[in-house]
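FORM 12-B: Structure-to-Sequence Request
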């Protein structure tokens, strides 16, 4: 039996996972707090030692591992396997992670940014299974995309394909990605909170939105309880989501768009206004063949993302 290793690296937590080649389930896993302040070398040492512990306690050797996949926030150079100082890992300045993992574990290693890795995960194991052309949207703290086109991950010339959060949807609006009115500014956790603060400043009615705890989650809870302002905020977000999706649908003609995080939890608050805009803005022939669905992998997506990177890399090397 052969296995894949995966490493999911975040600013708060990391995970090292083991999966059988023939299965889609995680066989074993070790999680630990990143504690980024201790420096990249200490974190990488714990990633490697955790991988070795997984092999030991499952009676495996390095020869049993096909490949290791890494999911990490960008910027990074996927071709060279170098992590280039992500915002949540400030001292990871050109860390050659793939080379280090290969030297320590004796298996090939591929590094992908987390949006691309999650796209692979949903495509291979989740809501995108069976598709040839699929888009995965993060829609969490930020807005990013991973693109599966013609049955393979598309990364672009410089590895930055899928940065849809930078698209400007309006001349004004919440600022994100350094741009007012951007897709991420309207459709992200921070963007929903920013819209709420702006609307609260001019709203004279009663609302259940807690002014000392304004977040996508608390606004959604208020909307579900019938709060008019909260409902209006999510309708506005849905409209902008529909506009952004219309652009993607017209340009890329996907058969499925898989959306995570906020859409996964609160899609019922967004879908009506989203669909209204798509109906007006997108080409009917393209919109008609595109299904928009929530992600399926939930809180475990990071585990599957890392394994998906390893699996895609190994299959591509054949």
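FORM 12-B RESPONSE
SEQUENCE OUT:
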């Amino acid at each position: 039996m052969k296995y894949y290793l995966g490493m999911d690296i975040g600013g708060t937590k990391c995970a090292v996972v083991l999966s059988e080649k023939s299965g889609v389930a995680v066989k074993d896993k070790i999680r630990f707090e990143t504690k980024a302040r201790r420096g990249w070398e200490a974190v990488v040492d714990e990633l490697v030692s955790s991988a070795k512990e997984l092999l030991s306690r499952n009676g495996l050797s390095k020869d049993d591992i096909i490949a290791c996949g890494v999911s990490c926030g960008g910027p990074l150079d996927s071709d060279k396997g170098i992590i280039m100082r992500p915002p949540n890992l400030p001292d990871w300045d050109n860390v050659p992670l793939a080379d280090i993992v290969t030297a320590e574990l004796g298996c090939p290693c591929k590094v992908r940014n987390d949006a691309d890795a999650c796209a692979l995960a949903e495509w291979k194991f989740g809501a995108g299974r069976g598709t040839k052309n699929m888009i995965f949207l993060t829609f969490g703290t930020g807005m990013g995309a991973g693109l599966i086109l013609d049955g393979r991950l598309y990364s672009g010339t410089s590895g930055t394909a899928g940065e849809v959060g930078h698209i400007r949807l309006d001349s004004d609006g919440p600022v994100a990605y350094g741009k007012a009115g951007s897709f991420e500014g309207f459709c992200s956790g921070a963007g929903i909170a920013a819209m709420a603060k702006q609307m609260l400043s001019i709203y004279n009615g009663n609302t259940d939105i807690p002014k000392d705890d304004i977040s996508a989650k608390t606004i959604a809870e208020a909307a579900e309880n019938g709060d008019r302002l909260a409902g209006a905020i999510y309708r506005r977000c849905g409209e902008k989501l529909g506009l952004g999706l219309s652009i993607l649908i017209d340009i890329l003609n996907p058969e499925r768009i898989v959306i995570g995080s906020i859409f996964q939890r609160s899609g019922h608050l967004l879908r009506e206004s989203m669909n209204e805009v798509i109906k007006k803005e997108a080409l009917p022939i393209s919109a008609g063949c595109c299904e928009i669905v929530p992600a399926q992998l939930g809180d475990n997506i990071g585990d599957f993302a890392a394994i998906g990177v390893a699996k895609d890399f190994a299959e591509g090397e054949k």
